[in-house]
Write a structure and sequence with these properties.
heterotrimer; A: 264 residues; mainly alpha; MetI-like fold; B: 315 residues; MetI-like (chain B); transmembrane helix (chain B); MetI-like_sf (chain B); cell membrane (chain B)
Chain lengths: 264, 315, 536
């Protein structure tokens, strides 16, 4: 249990740090879009900790400012997917046969696709931009949340207290709201944390394939895409945004593991 | 038992039909089609566009297009690539074999690395080995695979002065060239999957360690190695094998970006090219294969569990 | 078939002079040298050439297929020119030279072109080429029902006759001085009669070639490679020098560089000319740079929002500092353009100094915007295409340059398929573009800028004066007069701004030392491999 506590502490601290960077990047770095041809592709130095990119922009500043874009998109998408998927899951778990069957088959159909392929198709259809990326990621993860919430709702709905509430004459809606939501919500919330690192990787992969946010918005996946042309000539372009991705995913994973350990 | 199996099979079929329908519609919702790629910035008169549309059958109602396609699939004909004019079945199978090889190689690497790590960590939860393995799994599961691949490319170039070969060589032509070509992608994917294996094995073995018969065996004075060899491995072998199926499905779906990065002509790159080129038949064929493989693996896993676990058998 | 008598026949010397003397055009030219003038095409012969060996070429842009008639993409043409040949060759000088034709003659009225075919030309299928094959091929391309993107280029052809096995007579519905350039290698390849008669034709072209070119297709593996072997019955005795060519499809520009450095490839054309600096100082690599026929441009849709007003388009043109955009996009490794691609500037271009809207002039730009009733500017989407990397930095730079006018740009990235869809349906709005041409002003401008239905007018420009000049240019055979007309046309483009041609990226080819006698063609196509060889 000590380890769980340590992991939780580290996870929370890292998450808090990323949250702060995302919300107030100006505290950590100067502007991310100052172009200067004179200092292009400079290696990391005391002045530019992470070096400079093709157009002479400060990679450190791009990484810091990219946090808000990247993590924001993933965060909002996961939250949205949690709400929609969770809601539908509870509905299916409660409403019974036909709605359940129809929704479950749909969810299975979506889950049958590799998430990245689904992401590429959706991002191509919807077009570029942060909003559309959020939507694409949300659609990928709705069925996952749906399954988790449905299972939890099924379990809850068979519990004695729900049966008792029914017997006491509460209406279906009231039961749903009061009891089931209260018990399903934490499961969905936990799932949000668990899925965060996975969604982060999908977001980065889409950015890497050029389907992410358009320039000049800083974004980790987009930075990795730009870095490809200088993979061996200027490896810092790939290393630092990737390391930021890795660290953010580690933070979320730590938090997720610790929460999961507590939950069970 | 039979009834449960049939029910699962039925559900899988419904999923399959739905999934293919979804792909069919969604890919056609993406603006642009094969004709755009063919004509480029050389628009002709409307007659020639109409002629091309008719040639590819794109002028027919969507329902007709879908039913024709589905009917052909049932007869074993996946259609013809709009871009290359070649049979989709051949294109998709060629690509699938490449990806399957990478998937199996990755599986082998990740089992060879991940299982021992997981076992080492599981013997003494909280020990030094456990902490280190924990760190490994955390990094492995968190790093985007394509980024791991990029780092490997950088390291290979700067340390070894080595770069991957230009062309994927099938193992039947030259095993050495083949291995040279898939080494980096397999390592990149293997880092992730070895972490997954280590974590899974650790959980399984840690859970087993707490079980009475293991405790009893150790109390009888049997050394840890013997307990491991005799009980643990035997008991976690089956979950590990079924886990392999899941991982394989995950690899097959997840290689898209890695194949793109390393220029491997596998299923993922074929899928991506088909989406970008609006080659509907290839996209549908490739996704059909991906989905069928995923459903089959899941079915086999369920069956395995049903056979070994009497509780599931009754369900 | 009523045909006028051929009038004009120029000997090879005159044709070469026309090429050297800047202009040329559709006038004419034959060539009855020892080898029918063939030593002049594809670059020089090399008496020291050593036969044998396979040359490996890295390409980052893969052709969807190798069909010479049904693909507009440059990636396709770049490769199929080695397998399929037209009657003529698009010489870098801007003059079409005989290729499968041995000579060409034009009638007085400019309506009838008579081609005498080279003898002993064999197809990869083994058959000998006759005039019937030429007639079949060009009739196929120009028939809209066959859906070839080349149909519009062949639109002035009224009838093709094959009076005997070695003569092809092309009759036009109106004079078209660019006909010889049209019958070159983009859509003018000659294939055997009935090549497309069966439904399997398309599949076949992905598996074997049926042209007359120096190389024949051996294997095409999508997403991986294209392998070609020397055609043993090639009509040019002793050529090609190479036994084969292997095109390796590379996932991105960086892997091409790595492959060059580690000597896994012999030759590559850099998709990003600025990558040359990453190879500087690398022993054993020959890096050559040349002007190209490609143009990176900014297109303005005359039907789109504020762009409807020519004053707004002019203001934008006056605010753009092309050199700064080129610096940001390709580190300056190119040529800033006026109204024509770099490799045509000398032969066909209006002098940039004679064009009033090519130098940044903020004061005039602001005045024009104010005149248009937009003193405070406006907000507009600027479209860039995913995968065209120069567009990202160009967009950022352009946004900065237009900001002082109060024009706020939102960069939208769209996928190529989506972009092409909008483009062809003439709904291109305000977008970057990247396109190439054969070295002829009619082929360059007509389709893009002439109003419908004769042209495609993608930019909804609909300019009567422009139309008039384009029609005049097409009908005029005299090279000097022709140039005057196209210079006039460029002045109209400069004044009314349907497009801002930004820059031509240099064609940077990188070859290992052992690659000899490779001449880079300004189209960026692989013609040069027909005469390249590998030193021991």
């Amino acid at each position: 249990m000590r380890r769980v506590r340590i992991e939780l502490a580290i996870g929370l601290a890292l998450c808090a740090l990323f949250l702060l960077i995302s919300l107030a990047p100006a505290l950590f770095a100067g502007p991310s879009d100052a172009v200067s041809v004179a200092r292009r592709l400079e290696a990391p130095s005391a002045e530019f900790w992470f070096g400079t990119d093709e157009t002479g922009r400060d990679v450190y500043a791009r990484v810091i400012h990219g946090a808000g874009t990247t993590l924001g998109i993933v965060g909002v998408a996961i939250g949205l997917a949690g709400l929609i998927g969770g809601g539908l899951g509870v509905l299916a778990g409660f409403a019974g046969r036909w709605a359940d069957l129809a929704l479950s088959r749909m969810a299975d159909a979506l889950l049958a696709f590799p998430p990245i392929i689904l992401g590429v198709i959706l991002a191509s259809t919807l077009g570029s931009g942060a909003g559309n990326l959020v939507l694409a990621l949300a659609i990928i993860y709705v069925p996952v949340f749906y399954r988790v919430a449905r299972a939890a709702a099924l379990m809850e709905s068979n519990r004695a207290y729900v049966e008792a509430a029914r017997a006491l004459g509460y209406g279906e809606a009231a039961i749903l709201l009061r009891h089931v939501l209260r018990n399903v919500a934490p499961v969905v919330a936990l799932q949000c944390v668990i899925l965060f690192p996975l969604a982060l990787q999908i977001q980065a992969a889409l950015g890497f394939l050029g389907l992410g946010v358009p320039p000049p918005t800083p974004d980790w996946g987009a930075s990795l895409q730009e870095s490809r042309n200088y993979l061996t000539a200027a490896p810092w372009l790939a290393l630092f945004p990737g390391a930021a991705l890795l660290l953010a995913a580690v933070a979320a994973s730590l938090l997720g593991r610790a929460l999961q350990a507590r939950h069970t | 038992m039979i009834e449960a199996l049939l029910r699962r099979l039925g559900a899988a079929l419904v999923t399959l039909v739905l999934a293919t329908g979804v792909v069919f519609l969604v890919i056609r919702a993406v603006p642009g089609d094969i004709i755009g790629e063919m004509l480029g910035q050389s628009a002709g008169d409307p007659a020639s566009e109409a002629a091309l549309r008719a040639f590819f059958g794109l002028d027919r109602p969507l329902v007709t297009q879908y039913l024709t396609w589905a009917g052909d699939v049932l007869r074993g004909d996946l259609g013809t690539s709009m871009r290359q004019g070649l049979p989709v079945l051949g294109i998709v199978l060629d690509a699938f074999l490449v990806t399957l090889e990478i998937g199996l190689a990755t599986l082998l690497v990740s089992i060879l690395v991940g299982v021992p790590l997981g076992l080492a960590a599981g013997v003494r939860p909280g020990g030094v080995a456990d902490m280190m393995v924990e760190g490994f799994t955390l990094l492995g599961l968190s790093a985007p695979v394509f980024w791991t691949g990029m780092v490997l490319l950088i390291l290979a170039d700067s340390w070894l002065g080595w770069s991957p070969p230009l062309i994927y060589t099938p193992p039947s032509v030259s095993l050495a060239d083949n291995l040279e070509g898939i080494a980096l992608p397999v390592l990149a994917l293997g880092f992730l999957q070895a972490a997954a294996y280590a974590q899974f094995t650790r959980q399984q073995s840690a859970a087993l360690m707490r079980q009475d018969f293991v405790r009893a065996a150790r109390a009888r004075g049997l050394p840890a190695r013997v307990v491991y060899g005799r009980h643990l491995l035997r008991n976690i072998a089956i979950p590990l094998v079924t886990y392999a199926g899941l991982i394989l499905v995950q690899i097959l779906g997840g290689v898209v970006v890695v194949e793109t990065l390393f220029g491997i002509p596998g299923l993922g790159r074929t899928l991506l090219a088909a989406i970008q080129g609006r080659d509907y038949p290839v996209l549908q064929g490739a996704l059909l294969l991906t989905v069928v493989v995923a459903l089959l693996v899941n079915l086999v896993i369920d069956l395995t569990y049903a056979l070994i676990d009497p509780r599931v058998r009754g369900a | 078939m009523p045909l006028s008598t051929p009038r004009l026949t120029i000997d090879r010397r005159t044709a070469l002079l026309a090429g050297a003397g800047l202009l040329g055009g559709g006038l004419a030219l034959p060539a009855r040298g020892q080898d029918g003038g063939a030593e002049a095409v594809y670059g020089p012969d090399d008496p020291q050439a050593r036969r044998g060996g396979t040359l490996t070429v890295a390409i980052a842009n893969e052709p969807p297929n190798l069909d010479p008639f049904h693909q507009a993409g440059d990636a396709r043409t770049a490769i199929t020119v080695l397998m399929y040949q037209g009657l003529m060759f698009e010489d870098a000088s801007g003059v079409a030279k005989p290729l499968l034709a041995e000579s060409m003659a034009v009638s007085d009225d400019g309506l009838t072109y008579t081609f005498t075919l080279r003898r002993g030309v064999r197809f990869h299928t083994g058959r000998t080429m006759t005039s019937a094959d030429v007639k079949y091929s060009y009739d196929y391309v120009r028939n809209p029902a066959n859906g070839s993107p080349g149909a519009l280029d062949f639109g002035t052809i009224a009838e093709i006759g094959a009076p005997d096995d070695h003569t092809v007579v092309v009759r036009l519905s109106e004079p078209n001085a660019s006909l010889p350039m049209t019958l070159t290698n983009r859509f003018g390849g000659v294939v055997p009669v009935d090549t497309f008669a069966t439904p399997q034709a398309r599949a076949r072209l992905s598996q074997q070639s049926v042209g007359t070119g120096p190389f024949m297709l051996q294997e095409f593996r999508p997403q991986s490679h294209i392998r070609m072997a020397r055609f043993p019955n090639y009509w040019r005795q002793g050529q090609p020098y190479l036994d084969g060519v292997l095109f390796s499809v590379q996932p991105n520009a960086a892997s091409v560089l790595v492959a060059l450095r580690s000597r896994r490839v012999d030759l590559a054309l850099l998709a990003r000319p600025q990558d040359a600096e990453q190879l500087q100082g690398q022993a054993g690599l020959n890096i050559t740079s040349a002007s190209s026929l490609r143009q990176c441009s900014l297109d303005l849709d005359g039907n789109h929002a504020q762009l409807k007003d020519p004053r707004v388009r002019q203001a934008i043109a006056l605010a753009v500092d092309k050199d700064a955009v080129m610096q940001a996009s390709i580190s300056g490794k190119g040529k800033v353009l006026g109204t024509i691609p770099a490799a045509m500037q000398e032969s066909w271009g209006a002098p940039i100094s004679a064009l009033p809207n090519q130098k940044p002039d903020m004061a005039r730009a602001k005045a024009l915007l104010a005149e248009a009733g937009l003193p405070d500017g406006f907000t507009m989407d600027l479209i860039s295409i995913i995968g065209f990397e120069w567009m990202d930095p160009a967009g950022v730079t352009l946004a900065q340059q237009l900001a002082p006018l109060g024009i706020r740009l939102n960069i939208q990235r769209v996928e190529l398929g989506v972009w092409l869809n909008a483009y062809r349906s003439r709904n291109m709005r305000f977008t970057f573009n990247d396109w190439g041409t054969q070295p002829d002003p009619h082929i360059l401008y007509y389709r893009h800028f002439h109003s419908q239905p004769r042209g495609a007018d993608f930019r909804n420009w609909n300019n009567a004066e422009g139309d008039r000049l384009l029609d005049a240019g097409m009908a005029t055979a005299d090279p000097a007069r022709r140039k005057e007309i196209y210079v006039e046309f460029q002045k109209v483009v400069d004044a009314s701004v349907p497009t801002v041609m930004l820059f031509s990226p240099d064609l940077v080819s990188v070859a290992q030392q052992r690659v000899r006698n490779y001449a880079q063609h300004p189209t960026g196509w692989w013609f040069g491999l027909a005469k390249a060889w590998i030193a021991a």
